[in-house]
Amino acid sequence: MEIRSNRCSGRLRLVFAAVLTAAMFVTCAANAAGDAARGETLYQGCQDCHSIEKNDVGPMHKGVVGRTAGTVPGYNYSAALRNAKIVWTEANLDKWLTNPQGFIPGTKMFYQVNNPQDRADIIAFLKERAR
Fold first, then answer.
1. N or C terminus of the chain: which is more exposed, having fewer CB within 10 Å?
2. Integer Cα distance of 102 and 100 in angstroms
3. SS3 4
4. Which long-range contacts (CB under 8 A, 24 or more apart) does 18-23 make?
């Protein structure tokens, strides 16, 4: 009986530790403060397709935070993005940068930013400097 009790107790500790670790990870990612200066540096990788001031392969980013998706004049959006009816909030931009195809299936964008801090920094840059 004692051995079984110790085995269950050990499992409970492992489960508890795993839950705490996951909760800490989610909390840290959700509360990551963005560094706009670092985001500007990271944004250079976005410039293969995007610009702040003009449409390119992708739409311009000037005023992106707070804008309704698919509404930049002169850019040929996918039907999926034109019809998405979402506003580019910080939370939606984070989802988009995490997995554009998963967030809005059928969109043209394929590039993902896997690191939560990198996403937070890029979003802070767009929020602060792309007004």
1. N
2. 5
3. helix
4. none
Bridge partner list, 87: 68
pTM of the model: 0.74
Say what angle helices 116-129 and 36-43 make with each other, to 10 degrees. 100
- Could you list the beta-strand ranges (E) of 12-109: none
What pLDDT digit, counting tens, does each position of 60-72 carry?
Answer: 999 999 999 999 9
Q: Please tell me the distance from the alpha carbon of residue 1 to that of residue 131, in angstroms, as a whole number.
A: 67
Question: Which structure tokens are listed for 100?
Answer: 């554009």
> Residue 54: pLDDT above 50?
yes
Residue whose token pair is 């840290």: 28
- What sign for the dihedral angle of Cα 35, 128, 41, 48? positive
Terminal alpha carbon distance of the chain: 67
- Residue found by looking up tokens 């801090």 in the block: 117
Closest CA to 51 of 114, 121, 43: 43
Q: At what angle do helices 90-98 and 116-129 cross, to 10 degrees?
A: 130
